[in-house]
Amino acid sequence: MDFFFNTDGTELNVTRTSEIFSTRQLSQELRLASTGDSRLQWIAGGYYLDEDKDGALGLVRQLGVPSLRSFNIFATNKTKAYAIFGELYYNLTDRVKLTAGVRYSNEKKDDYNELNFVLANAANPASEVNLGLFGNINYAACGPMLCPNQSRTDSRSWSDTTPKLGIDFKLQDDVLLYASYTEGFKSGGYNDYQPNNPVFDPETIKSYEIGAKTDWMDGRLRLNAAAFWYDYSDLQVTTFFQSLTLVSNAATAKVKGIDFELLAQPAERFNFGLSMSYLDATYDKFDVPYGVCSAAVLPLNDPGCADVSAVTPTPAGSRPLGSPRVVDARGNTLNNAPQFKGNLFGEYTVPVGNAGTFTFFGQVSHTSDIYFNAANSPAAKQAAITLLDARVGWTDARDQLEVSLYGKNLSDEEYFHNIVQFTSASLPPPGVAVPGQGTVITDPFAVGHALGYPAPGRTWGLSLKYRF
Q: Which domain holds residue 438?
């Protein structure tokens, strides 16, 4: 995949970014399951993954100012992962079933990363840098001192054993109550485009859930409900640091929620459904990167750089210069975790004999406020949004050909799928006056710019389906 886009937030062609990625992947899963009708049933299996990723990212600044730099980053990542798993199901009675399972996961990653800088100067302005293929920059024109290269080679392995326990209880034939406890594991990895923050740790989760699945009125009414609690350790969170993507680990985070679903058929040709969810998702502890700890900010007693030392080699328990400045996100809402989501739909069918069937469908959905960064910055917030969709379809009498006219976001709401906020790496810490201005920064994310990815507006379409 190739991407080319403007990253300066203006109509001017000041900075341009190019990204090129390629991926090769082989994966396979094998499962074996018991047969028969005995009280004890089982399933066992294994999983294998072999993946190679290659990528290149280039940023070119076009002003020709000596303080501005252009760079290329090349990255190669190889992953080999395998897992073995098994589950036992035991029917204690005709109405009670017990579940116990375990999974062992192992993942090894090899990473190579190379960073090439091109510094602008009068003899070699940045505007002369070739934007074609990465590697075509004329390094000889600026000399080795102006084109320093950095490279990194690393290999890491992560593994974990995660259990699963559950119980199902059939209160009656159409009413199932259940409870489960599950642990999960997500391996660590590399920030290929972040030389100072190359590695992030594995993420683990403990999940608790209780719920009910019920059918009523001979299956014409279905009610499902669930309550859950997720306890994350080292939650992997994507942030943006120095204009590049950075995955870092929140120490802990907790998610509590309730899901509700209703599906009903009050008449032969009419169906409707309602789903709602409530979420309370917060970081227990998370230091969000928002700049760089340089020698210039250390004398300002920056709380985000309290554990950074300018001494070389870096003393034990300290971080080196160039490490991220951080802001405490304790108690903030998780990224992309709206507190409330709701959806209501209705569908009505009209048979027309040998001419087929017409279907009329309408839907309204609502999503509450969403924050797109862990700092919960107002500039990276999407306000609550309500969307309307509709569809009119026709199916032939043999149920093979289907033609539909659909509309999405009929009220033409303007909103964003994602907002990326870039911050200034040179700001003083919150509460410290800007030198020469006397201005006190209270929000470390107040300076910089935000890049929004707009969702489609009102959309009309025609779809054709044929079933063989």
A: 201-466
- Is 256 a domain residue? yes
Rounded to an integer, what distance in angstroms lies between the CA atom of residue 449 and that of residue 8? 8
pLDDT of residue 296: 60
Lowest mean pLDDT among 189-198, 223-232, 453-462: 189-198
Q: Which of left, alpha, beta for 36 (phi over 0: left; psi -120 to 50: alpha)?
A: left
Scanning the structure block, which residue is given the tokens 């985000």?
Answer: 304
Low-confidence winner among 23-37, 135-149, 217-231 (lowest mean pLDDT): 135-149
94 found inside a domain: no
Alpha-carbon dihedral of residues 368, 374, 380, 382, nearest 10 degrees? -10
> Does residue 165 form part of some domain?
no
User: What is the tally of structural domains in the chain?
Assistant: 1
* AA identity, residue 180: S
Tokens found for residue 291: 């700049």
Residue 212's domain is classified under what CATH number?
2.40.170.20
How many CA atoms within 13 Å lie on the side-chain side of 299? 4
Query: What 3-state DSSP class applies to 211?
Result: strand
Q: What is the pLDDT of residue 132?
A: 31
The structure's pTM equals: 0.80
C-beta neighbour count of 15 within 10 angstroms: 20
Q: How far is CA 280 from CA 23, 210, 233, 276, in A?
A: 36, 17, 17, 14
Count the alpha carbons within 13 Å of 422 in the hemisphere toward its beta carbon. Answer: 12
Distance between CA atoms of 405 and 118, rounded to whole angstroms? 53
pLDDT band at 250 (very low <50, low <70, confident <90, very high): confident
Is 122 strand, coil or helix?
Answer: coil
Backbone angles phi, psi at 449, to 5 degrees: -145, 160
Q: Does a structural domain hold residue 32?
A: no
Helices (H) and strands (E) in the chain, counts: 0, 26
- Please state, in angstroms and rounded to a whole number, the distance separating the CA atoms of residues 149 and 112: 13
